[in-house]
Amino acid sequence: MNFARTSVSLALASAIALLPALVQSQDKAPKPSDKPTSYAPVDITEDFAVTMARMQAQRPIVMKRQRDLLAMRYDLADRPAKGVSMFRGKPVQAGIRAKLPAGVSWEQLAAMTPEEIRDKNLFPKGFLPLSHPNHPEGGMLFPQFHIDEIQKQEARNLNRFDLEFDLPDHFLPEFPAPIFLTTRPDLGDVSQGKLLTIDNFHGMFNGVLNPKQLEGLRLLLTPFPQQQFNQTEDRRSERPSRGVSCFDCHANGHTNASTHLAGDVRPQALRHRIDTPTLRGVNVQRLFGSQRALKSVEDFTEFEQRAAYFDGDPVIATKKGVNPLERGSQVHFMAEFQEILDFPPAPKLNVHGKLDPKKATESELRGQAVFAGKGQCISCHAPPYYSDNLMHNLKTERFYKPQTINGQLAVGDGPIKTFQLRGIKESPPYLHDGRLLTLEDTVEFFNLILETKLSAQEKTDLVAFLRTL
């Protein structure tokens, strides 16, 4: 008798017998210990087939919980702004989508102190931190349109068996996004309307990029193992995966709004959701990464694959197949391509990054005045790129009491990086976690947080100005 084979069979039979109980909740997955730890489990004791079956059964429940949260917070209707679109024609969504508490108007809310809003529990739910679709689990999560295109071009599957993306497509950036190069402004959009992948990049860019940039682009499009997509039993893809590429989130050097959790804090409940930022204009940025402790795009590029791909855990990274990039060539080449990604054209702006009075409407000009004056926007978002390359703490916790939201403990946002506003209408949703679905939401949020008390007309004009950047 083969005792080893018999033992394995008995173990598998026992695992299958436990399956009905395990599918009740993802939270009931076997845990080594309830004692707090900074590390992810390395030795997975549950059979992969059991893990997948349990999480697949729980997926509809998890996603319903998240969609109920979104529906409670926001008006999710597809309601585009009249005559306003992104570069390649995708409509820009209009209106404030965060729902107000019953019995109060935006004007009434803005007239209250932060303490009044907190004590009366009137802070709009859509302004609270936005949780990952399954915050206790976390991990990279891609919109379905990107998953489908990668499957079509590369036969690489980015579907997760446990989760799907939560925000509706009409609130996300244009896809595929246009690509503009600082080195070849004469070419305009060089994307040819295609999603850039390992299958097509050479034909599209040979003769446009130099050899270093071309090699850097190849590496940015090459999949490498990641926390949820790898070849181990501790993955969230049905089959062992080649991994993900940098441009699976930063699609076409821009963003497709893929989400993740910042790896810079523990425990899990305190990690922040990340809305993937655009790479356009990184040549004028000076702070990178979720901690904003990285001071060059080279540092960021190397850090992403060594740490961020694995939730900031170098122990689990070793097991799953971390890809250590060579600093002097590979990292430099990747950075060199990223640093030539340009903003989309802004035909109403002059060389100083301000509106040309001959081209702008009266509303846009009034909005620029609000931006530079009463709205206080310019104190952080200075032209021509509309950023100060600094960190700022908005102290949002003044407005609400600590609370747990679908597994995330909302206690404040802490210091966050000033986002560049050039091309801002091309990069929804807004704020670091994507909680603000439209520019109108963003203006209303900052009007409340900064206590600027803008009038309805001033808010309308400010949105009009932001759409010109």
What is the element string, with H for helices and E for strands? HHEEHHHHHEEHHHHEEEEHH
Radius of gyration: 23 Å
Number of domains: 2
| Biggest pleated-sheet summary | 2 strands, antiparallel
Give the termini separation. 75 Å
Largest beta sheet: strand ordering:
1-2
Percentage of residues in DSSP E strands: 5-15%
Total strands: the figure is 8
Overall mean pLDDT? 91
Instruction: Report low-confidence residues grouped into runs of 5 or more.
Output: 1-28
Gross geometry = globular
Helix content: 25-40%
Number of helices: 13
**Would you tell me the structural class of the helices and strands?**
mainly alpha
What does this structure look like?
- By secondary structure, this protein is mainly alpha-helical.
- The protein is about 30% helix and about 5% strand.
- The chain contains 13 helices and eight strands.
- The strands form four sheets. It has a two-stranded antiparallel ribbon. A two-stranded antiparallel ribbon has the order 3-4.
- A hairpin with a 2-residue loop joins strand 6 and strand 7.
- Helix 7 (about 210-220) packs across helix 10 (about 325-340) and helix 12 crosses helix 13.
- The model is unreliable at about 1-30 (pLDDT under 50).
Task: Put the structure in a nutshell.
The protein has 13 helices and 8 strands. With 469 residues, it is mainly α.
